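Service request form, structural biology core

Requester: graduate student, group of Dr. S.
Request type: structure prediction, single chain
Budget code: on file
Notes: please return the result as structure tokens.

Sequence provided:
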Amino acid sequence: MRSNVVLFGLLVLAPSCTPSGAPRDTASTASSSASSAPAAPSSGKSRLAELRPVHPAAKRAICPLTIEPGVGIGGIEIGYTMRDLEALGLPIDQEPRSAVVTVGVVKASLLQGKVVDVWIDDVRQVDDCISMGGKAIGRTAPYDEFHARASKCVAEAPREGGSFERCEGGGLFLGRGMGTFLQIRVRPKGDDLTLDNLAVALEDDGSPLALEPKVRAKLLETCLDRRELAGYWHADKPGVVDRHKSREDDEVA
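Core staff response, request fulfilled:
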């Protein structure tokens, strides 16, 4: 572990090394290096850019509320734009200053103009026309019956007020809380997609994140200030200070 930390420090500092024993201002050196480094090109498109609905939008009724993992609920599909949602001919209510819209009885969240999350807040409160796994299922059916229609379910991180299971490779989430409450969400499939990282994961295009020089300098300083590197500071050389020892002396004083 110690050798790995040292290697990291050497790799970062290599472009801006000064002669042995010379005083060094770590923060200013890192800032200079960061400001002169060219920005890395993007490595490709994000998953959000390539997200497409399975079916074209067309007029429809609220029922049936067909749940299709990774596709949509009741005809509201992942990848639809606001224009597509309007083409469905269903009542639309958009929350003020929010990316969440209600289309009929189904809610949808848009990211950069595309639907990425579709859900029914509580299936117990909608019309009894739900279909899941290719078959009709009553809105008052027990949770276990809905769960049996899904596959590859794993528990999501605990959260206040309820719990969720991630199913169908991330394309379906089943949430339950107090009483008979049951929420069903449909999202794009992806083994790395969880309930909490959707937006970040979909927008990631693989390109490195550009850091401000001050931020990069602070990160480098924090790394080099770790106690694991203390043995490599050569505190006996002119201009080099054992910062941990100085702090300990200050605490004793």
